[in-house]
Amino acid sequence: MSELRLVVVGVGGRMGRALVRTIAETTGVTLAAALTRPGSMIIGQDAGVLAGIDALDVKVSDDAQSAFAHADCVIDFTSPESSRVFAKEAAQAGIVHVIGTTGLSEADLQVIHEAAHKTVIVRSGNMSLGVNLLAALVRRVAKTLDADFDIEILEMHHRHKVDAPSGTALLLGEAAASGRGISLKDHAQRVRDGHTGARIPGDIGFATLRGGSVVGDHSVIFAGEGERIELSHKAEDRAIFARGAVKAAIWGKGRAPGLYSMADVLGISDI
Asked: What confidence score (pLDDT) does residue 69 get?
């Protein structure tokens, strides 16, 4: 069986470099292309050397159309604006699109949904096995406990993260809302400042911390009268997200077009 040909976009970023290293370590996949934005200083560099490993004989490029034409899948941890473009181009090329980009708007998601009619898209606010198991547990606990238990989601990331709440926090919020049978959009409480009054029953609260080099800490708190249940995950290495994304790429090859999640990839969507 031939190796699965993967394209990494945003190869100059921390996740992009982690993906290159993970692909180089994974049997059955190969780095077909490494892309960056037009005009970038890293164009022409070897992707392996850029990622801190041996040369891979894959030069960094900005030609997505050519790269997609000779690949099986693109892995994308870039920006909402870029992911919209890549979704359209991946659909046109008929290749799997794995999206780990966070901060997506409703308009961004609409573009992705439309592209999923033509190709396989695996999208998740977090690609790690641990976080997706946590989300399944959160959904189950939220379904089991009634609204007497308030739900609060706390997250912390490094000082450079630009979106809040994190994609993972929103993933966990969606899991909690799904368990309760409510819409997160209608019940999310993202900001508290000043004289807010008492907590609104049924709301799902978010608290955001930023600082240092924290890869990602997330906790979901179910607070009842006289007791609390806390479910937590701490990410210590970006490689966990890269490994999950590569797993999603392998899983997606040969699937029917559609929009899938990491819960589908891991076979835990029914928990």
From this structure: 96
Q: Is-cis flag, bond preceding 38, omega within 30?
A: no
Reduced to 3 states, what is the DSSP secondary structure of residue 226?
Answer: coil
Catalytic residues, by residue number, are 157, 161
| pLDDT of 268 above 90 | no
Cα distances (Å, whole numbers) of residue 125 to 37, 61, 76, 104, 147:
23, 26, 12, 10, 26
Helix 129-144 crosses helix 167-180 at what angle (to 10 degrees)?
30
Residue 188, pLDDT score? 96
State which amino acid sits at residue 233: H
Strands 227-235 and 216-224 turn out to be: antiparallel
DSSP string for 63-80:
-HHHHHHT-SEEEE-S-H
- Which pLDDT tens digit goes with each residue over 17-39? 999 999 999 999 999 999 999 99
Q: How many CB atoms lie within 10 A of CB 107?
A: 10
Calculate the average pLDDT of the chain.
95
Tokens of 136: 């399944």
Residue 82, burial from CB neighbour count under 10 angstroms (0-12, 13-18, 19+): middle
The whole-number average pLDDT for the span 260-269 is 90
Measured at the CA of 249, the angle between CA 51 and CA 65, to 5 degrees, comes to 75
- Bridge partners of residue 151, in order along the sequence: 204, 222
Contact assessment for residue 82 and residue 100, using Cβ atoms and an 8 Å cutoff: no
- Tell me what the mean pLDDT of segment 100-121 comes to: 96
What stretch of H or E contains 125?
none
Three-state secondary-structure class, residue 149: coil
